[in-house]
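request received
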Amino acid sequence: MSSGSPKLRRGAVSSPEELEAALWAAAEARVSVLDSLDTEEILEIIAAAADAWLKPYYRPREDIVRKLSAGLRMNRAMLDKGLDYVFGALDKRSIATLVVNEAENPAALDRAVKRPDGSLRRLAGPPMVLYSTAGNVPGLGIPPLVCCLLARSICVIRDSARQPWLTAAFAATLSEYSEDLGAMVIAAAWDRNDREMERFAFSQASRVELSGSDRVVADVAARNRHDQVVTRGSTLSLGLVPRESDTDRWSAAFAEDIVMYEGLGCLSPHLILVEGSFARARRMAKSLDLALQRLEKIWPRSELSFDAERGRRAFIGSAEVSVACDPQRMLLRGRNDEWLIHVNPEAPIEAGPGMRCVTIVAVPDRAETAALLREATLPLAAVALAMDEDHSAYPAIRNALQRCGATLICAPGKMQAPPIYWKQDGRARLGELLAWRLEDEL
Amino acid sequence: MRDLVIQFIQENSGTHNHAGSSEARFNDLALKVFAYQYETVPAYRRFCTKRGISPASSSRSGISHWGEIPAIPVDAFKQNIFDEPGVTARTARQADRGSATFAREAEPAGPNKNEQGRRAHVFLSSGSSHGMENRSRHCLSGLTTYKLSAMAHFRDMVLADGPGPMAVLLLGPSANTHPHSSLGRMFSWCGEEFGHREVEAVFGAGGAVDLDRAIAWLQQRCAESRPVLILALSSALSALISRLRENDQRLRLPADSRIVDTGGNKGGPVLSAKGLLKAAWRFLHVPAYLCVNEYGMTEMLSQFYDDALRCRIRGGLLARSKIGPAWVRSVLVNPRSLQPVQGGCRGLLRHLDLANWESISALQTLDVGIVAGDGFIVQGRATGAETRGCSQLLSTLTGAK
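response:
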């Protein structure tokens, strides 16, 4: 079945009437799922649907990559690889790990169990969860969708107007395996000024999760009072090359993390801290420069929006001045500035513009690394740790990074492929949905 | 160099940058100023060298047109480009820990010092979202060029109809309250040069504005015939208008009264440009053509003004645009390529200000503009930019009632 080319049965809903109709259908489907599908089956269906999307010859994938490339102004081959990351995370084992990690009693997801107070209750999510996702990278709606289905909640995923296709397409694939599960996923897209639709969606939701820029998220939350709102704002991701590690070995992997999604995701590294002498930082910069040059050939940079290019220009200007003020600093750049590497020991630990711009900070020792991370202007998200996991120093460094707030610590080259059980912002994505509910409350 | 620039300003006062001054003379002087700055600001020289550009006389990479002069990002003024390398908190911390890794090269001092080798005047921008320690610094050995440039263009754009000495209300910084504010210095000069008697200053050093006092003073002026000149931060003017609206109070200022506001919509609650024009007429009886918005920055000693009054005098009915003086040239460039944009397209504003002869004249801003009429329209700062500019002075205004 997975090798076929199912038609996309529906696009994203965009009016209160369409959403209401979809919610009616979803409510019926939910009853059926609660009665007839256990977690193992749901898990298998999600994994099978994801596997279909991993096939290069799956026609909807080609279609979506083409649309995403136009909508996000990103290279097609890069987005193709990005979809591998999105759906590669949905293997059976990883989803099972998510369930085990976050469900207090996984068996209670399938049937009511006796609670200490004598009541019969089942672990389940709220009837409907509304997710509003950021538009900077594709596939942000997929992990919430998986969690909702495991929690037997209907999910309405409002994708950015720039890329409203992937959630609807994946829901269509899910429907190939289970009409009911597919119906529980409602892809929505509406203009940010469509207050009527926004109000209606909020009014129907039992829980709301908003992600995007801090300002947009705050504005939406302020406009729509809701007693269960989770907001996810800006975070900072970076790389760390410990003193014990070789600088050259990791540059290709770092380059891929930097370039993927043009560095616009919350998991894109904006800085790389290189422990040791300034010469090591410069060496790292030179090898990274070569790696970015190679990537430019296969994933050439596209021109982004005026505002995005303006943000990039600010970085370039600042780096040029920095190097002019202190000749020991270094600025490596591609032809026509396709990429920029600014080596600056004084750089603040803050997010840059992304878009293939990265700052390398030379840090004398580990204590200084920790001090710098504590100075970060945003909460830490991912840290790519350039060190083999079996290195004796690895556990101590990982623990130190966790203490600084990093929620994803991985090898370079893996930053854009977080496992489904990654706790974004330190929050249990599935666990937070689940509550002990009486059968008639479901 | 100073004398050459002053002579040019004096000879070209009363014209603006698209008329009057000889293009060849401007070009010649701009190249001389560039050569001077290339020699005297080592960091700027390195910046130009990285771009493969040098003054005409020094090598084959020499340039022959002002448009080729490398524009330095205004951010340079935050990075102490004119100073000897400083010691930041981080380098100090690292040095304390015994690391000599990050020692920086000592640099000869910049040009902008007076005969005693001291910087007589240091203008600081009013802070930013990145903190007060990250302010732009513009150091000058003297204020002659700044005053000449600022007053000449102010006269041309704001007082072109010759209203005579006016009663001046200051709803913004002054040299007394904000000695490091270039805007404050200019407002004070305006009061001295164009005011009648003492200037009424209602803007405190802490950024608080005494609106009640301002309204009482304006009420008194309504009974007189002498026109009023209000020099204001846009946010302070908005606050004044809000107070008049709250009080349901409409004042009728004498004929030829006028308003100069600056600061845009950054940093505090501000009426839109159109809203301000409408409210100025409604609450102060000042017509739109006598409301002139200024666009300027600490890093630049010349300013731009709306051409509303100039158009009115000439009998034109064009949409207002910002006009700079004859010793300034502005172009809009593509943020990606830094090449000039085609007419009608948005671009980043780049200015070449000869009045900046003592620091750096060619400035690349991140302000977004579009060509209009004889000048340009500022479309504000694009999404994601840090808030900057003098309106930051007003951060305390909202609670300053």
